[in-house]
């Protein structure tokens, strides 16, 4: 389903328990964020939970918006310009999505007011050094995956990821590990196509043959996402 201006006009905009103006877009099965300009930047919170969104981006400039929830989607990519679209974003909940690369997480670094972030249930959250990387790369975050960031964690993150004000060798290595091409959204349809039954069966067979837990998780995430990337080996 498309997130049309007409659909947005019929969605509930309520005053939530925190007395924020919240736009409820839960469970509409929309596959892309679009047409939010018609909301006239009147919302403090937007809830995209339980949709089919694969790309976090394409927002107009929304200076009022402080909270975005997009739990239970298929988001694998994050717009590198999201800081220009949502300059006052305070909390971002991406629980149970498909973000697999540290390079995508790095796009959140310039959200200077982002203090609450959840990436639980994303493939990247199971990688080694995940928490240290996020704490280092997005220093404004005070609570990550519902757990407060401690001073000790920040010190550990700097020791691992910072080399005299530049990314350490480890940080560079993590940033270079990409499974999803960082292509503009306009070109995404060319890079992504649905899995055929043959491809799905091949992934299932590969899971059976996998030799490590990490490989099993990677293949299961690809199968769960339900899309093949032509550029993915």
From TrEMBL:
One of its GO terms (cellular component) is U2 snRNP. Keywords: Leucine-rich repeat, Nucleus, Repeat. One of its GO terms (molecular function) is U2 snRNA binding. It comes from the Eukaryota. Residues 184-200 have a biased composition (Basic and acidic residues). It holds the Pfam family LRR_9. Residues 181-200 are annotated as: Disordered. Residues 127-145 form the U2A'/phosphoprotein 32 family A C-terminal domain. It is found in: Nucleus. InterPro entries: LRR_dom_sf (IPR032675), RU2A (IPR044640), U2A'_phosphoprotein32A_C (IPR003603). One of its GO terms (biological process) is mRNA splicing, via spliceosome. Belongs to the U2 small nuclear ribonucleoprotein A family. This is U2 small nuclear ribonucleoprotein A'. It comes from Malassezia cuniculi. The gene is LEA1.
């Amino acid at each position: 389903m498309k997130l049309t201006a007409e659909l947005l006009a019929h969605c509930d905009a309520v005053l939530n328990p925190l007395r924020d103006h919240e736009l409820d877009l839960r469970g509409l099965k929309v596959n892309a964020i679009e047409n939010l300009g018609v909301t006239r930047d009147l919302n403090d919170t937007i809830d995209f939970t339980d949709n089919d969104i694969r790309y976090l981006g394409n927002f107009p400039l929304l200076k009022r918006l402080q909270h975005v929830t997009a739990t239970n989607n298929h988001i694998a990519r994050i717009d590198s310009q999201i800081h220009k679209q949502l300059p006052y974003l305070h909390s971002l909940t991406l629980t149970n999505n498909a973000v697999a690369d540290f390079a995508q997480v790095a796009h959140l670094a310039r959200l200077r007011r982002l203090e609450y972030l959840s990436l639980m249930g994303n493939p990247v959250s199971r990688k080694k050094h995940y928490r240290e990387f996020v704490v280092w790369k997005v220093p404004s975050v005070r609570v990550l995956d519902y757990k407060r960031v401690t001073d000790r964690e920040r010190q550990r993150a700097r020791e691992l990821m910072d080399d005299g004000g530049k990314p350490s060798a480890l940080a560079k290595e993590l940033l270079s590990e990409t499974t999803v091409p960082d292509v503009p959204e306009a070109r995404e349809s060319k890079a992504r196509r649905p899995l055929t039954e043959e491809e799905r069966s091949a992934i299932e067979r590969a899971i059976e043959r996998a030799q490590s837990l990490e490989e099993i998780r990677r293949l299961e995430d690809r199968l769960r996402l339900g899309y093949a990337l032509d550029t993915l080996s």
